[in-house]
Amino acid sequence: MIATQSNTVKEESFSMTFSSVFIPGAGFMGSAIAFLIASKTDAKVTLCDIYPESLNRSKSTVEKYGKSSIDKGFLTQEKFDNLKSRIMWSDNYKDAVDADLVIEAIAEDVKAKQELFRHLDHVCNEKTIFASNTSSLSITNLAAVTKRTDRFIGMHFFSPAHIMKLLELIRGVDTSDETFSRVKKYGEHLGKTVISSKDFPGFITTRLGLVLVNEAAFALMEGLSTAEEIDTGMTLGYNHPMGPLALADFVGLDICLHILETLYEGFGDPKYRACPLIRNLVAAGHLGRKTGRGFYTYSNN
Fold it and tell me: Is there a contact between 112 and 93 (Cβ–Cβ < 8 Å)?
């Protein structure tokens, strides 16, 4: 009875915040996560990237988020200056040494992520919690390269992370109740609605979302209707804020293809086979908004 009470006290004593957060990957997602954390907590946040151009873009991105938030009345200039003073940019993973939480936001490549976590496992304190922002890869598989599988979890933010309200948490096979509880409370502290998923390919949101994207691509390929009308059917008929083809262009068709291949490999089910139209567009270099052409054509001026 005494031991049970002690465990309960320990569980309730978890801090919902982390004083130092290290984010490898200073791209669009990593920058937004850093801005979110710095705006909602007093934590020191370090954005790390091995590419100087990524760090420079990240600084500009944070400035853009700050200006937009000030213009909309969400932040004062004083508060923005304060949060900006707590965001550091680094090109050295050794700066993770004092981190309480690591949120990985690098490219969706399993080998690159494993290599990163293997390295950080030697750098960080044994109590540091590791999280991956992956949208489809196995958390158990990523955690297996570390010696902290119980302190490893998926934190799937949605883009842009400082605005979107959802946070999807994924428990690996060994993720402890303590880790899940602490990260869930932290997500809620950041203002997110938290949902949880078991560790299966694509989790909840990516699995369902990419099936819709893929089926919309098949419908377009088969000449069922135009891209505009397929998307209008989903925005007006199902109240989706963006049609599946426009969403795929926003995400990037190369990323969509990679996720579909992950789903197909993970489940071995033909319903996840990637539409040939997506494959052809990716092969042609038409990846969506970032290249100016995908299912739609864009002006990138």
Answer: no
| Calpha distance 299→240 (Å, rounded) | 24
Element (H, E) at 44: strand 44-48
Residue 129: enclosing H or E segment and its boundaries? Answer: strand 129-132
Whats the size of the chain, residue-wise?
301
Residues 60/88, Cβ–Cβ less than 8 Å: no
Nearest to 139 by CA among 112, 105, 114: 114
- Name the token pair of 159: 């883009």
pLDDT tens digits, residue range 141-181?
Answer: 999 999 999 999 999 999 899 999 999 999 999 999 999 99
Identify the burial level of 279 via C-beta atoms within 10 angstroms of its C-beta, where 0-12 means exposed, 13-18 middle and 19 or more buried.
middle
Residue pLDDT, tens place only, 135-150: 999 999 999 999 999 9
The structural domains of the chain, ordered by start, are 2-198 (3.40.50.720), 206-283 (1.10.1040.50)
Specify which residues 197 forms β-bridges with. Answer: 170
Phi, psi of 105 (to 5 degrees): -140, 40
